[in-house]
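Practice set, problem 2.
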Amino acid sequence: MRIGDRWTAMIVLCLEARPRRFTELKQLLGAVSAKVLTDTLRAMERDGLLTRDIFDENPPRVEYQLTDLGRTLLRLVEAARDWARDNLDDLLAARQRHDDDLARSLRGSAPAQPARGRDPGRGVHTPYGR
């Protein structure tokens, strides 16, 4: 089950208003590869979260739509989206503090660079090695 998966949540939001074709989903999601989208859609279909409807047309048309079970995920996905939006400033500030602290600690604990022409393991560097 892939409920917490990044793409599952985004697909649920994409299918909220209406059924969509694969190419529509790919366009809306942008960064997802065709393979990852295909695998995610298959897993969601297997879990009963969406249906894959094939229309007997030329060329064939396939649409994906949320099932009633899939629609129950909307509350969770929307709640997570709302939480992220409401806390975005705090999240970004925490990330910045963390990155600043990490950069400071790395600068303070970085090993000293050996003097030019010296081998840090043996002292004076000679053309004959160690």
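Problem 2, part (b): a different protein.
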Amino acid sequence: MARHDGESKRSFGTLRTLASGRVQARYTGPDMRRYKAPKTFATEDEAKTWLRGVHRAIKDGLWTAPTVGKTPKAGLTLKEYSDDWLKHRLVRGRPLKQRTREHYEDLLEDHIYPELGPLPIRSITRDDIEAWYKKTLVDHPTYRSHAYSLLRTILGTAEDEERIPMNPVRIRGAGSVEPAHEAPPATLEELAVIVSKMPARLQLMVELAAWCALRFGELTELRRENVVVAKDRITLNIRLGAVRTKDGRKAETTKSRAGVRPVTVPPHLRDAVKEHLQTHTGKKKSDLLFPAKHGGYLAPSTLYRHYYKGRSAAGRPDLHFHDLRVTGATMAAVAGATLKELQARLGHSTVAAAMRYQRVAQDRDADLAKKLSELVDVRTTD
């Protein structure tokens, strides 16, 4: 029977799902004292198996109480605990993606372990965290926030597992960072200039980045089988994204479940999509829409070499390729998309980003209203 404290009552022992998603097992011994498993488990089945073993030992008279006072993990260091955390970490019931795991490994090895790795987790204080934070990645605010957030999550799990009394990672605002780059969306005229400067095989990539608000990884993983051409519409079924790992570029699932989505291509691009499929895409279902010249995934550097020339010609050297996604989101908002519609089209799991694009759209609408009034002023002057 489910209990309000998050524990699940069983005939022998209890199971508790922690905030980390791992499962803690507890039981009452023959001495009427409460004991918990020396480790947490990835699944309820693993925890139940452990409890069955303890129960059998009690019934067979083989059980001995865990030695009170003997705490082999009392000196468990942050590095030891974090290495184990990384190995068993689950997100929505799944292991970490390779790119995410590699990013965490780099943050730990390069920026967390040198200062905090040797310390026993029970001894780490808020002063230790603040001293570490003050001198870590000061000139790289985004990576600094990533390192801080990772450390906070790891020690948050340790708190859930009752390995430490309280998470000492508590610096207000340290887990967020103001965007270092925020360029205005491209205008239709600027977008047309950029597209005109791209090689024919990459022109549609720029157009889909803008009009469908797709990410670079989603575009480079698009395959013929993801393009559904019907009589009155063309739909792109976004399923995966290409990411860079230490083993090279590979396909991974999207950032969240919301990233798996159908995206309808605006009608004015239908002919361009059909032409691209006919001229620049292989005939197999698995063939990429935008491959490298000699096959495989398109490298960012190849795209940027052409894209940078296009944005310069358009007078927009500040426009990153990802800003085309911002452009598409803003155009959708200007066209009247609701927050939920924006969220679905962009593949976001929350409405926060959609709200941002709606605010940008409102600002642009205010600018438009101002320009309309300027037209009236011109007529009055004449």
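Answer key, part (b): The chain has three domains: 13-60, 78-161, 188-367. The CA atoms of residues 288 and 295 lie 9 Å apart.
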